[in-house]
Design a protein that fits this description.
The chain is built from three helices and ten strands, in the order E-E-E-E-E-E-E-H-E-E-E-H-H. The protein is α+β, with helices and mostly antiparallel strands.
Amino acid sequence: MKKKPIVTNIKNIATTKFFNIQSMDIEFSNGEKRQYERLKPDGDGAVLVIPMLDDDTVLMIYEYSGGTDRYELALTKGKIDAGESPIEAANRELIEEIGYGARQLSFVKTMTLAPGYQSNFTHIILAQDLYKDSAQGDEPEPLEVVKHKLSDLENLVYNEDLTEARTIAALYMAKEIIRNQ
């Protein structure tokens, strides 16, 4: 295993509502020095939830995405609030975004999106045994909830509206987990 480099200095170079852009001075074990930049969000990360209506039916949403300037098909997701566990945040996001809570929530994996320059973590949670519930969330408009079949996953991942890598990976993991239950 490589020896981890030493971070000699971290400096915030810009701050937005959601991110700090940081400059990091790094010294490697061979003496080489580099400066890296990273996006460092506030908080304890985010959750991405795979809500299963039954063993084959996943509930997904269409939500406007500013990064692509279009509506994207994705799984329920959101920031973990202060004092919340990933499991608690997952159930809250489900209730706010799709109108369901879950009696069974299982941690699947923690993922990064682009670890070379982003320091955020997304906790993937499988939600099963759903029940109807609702609460006001922070979405600017109602989200369209749609049903898809994991048995048709190979076609679903080629849907032009489904481009988010975390969602695609989570769907494949959910299909495998449910198959092995």
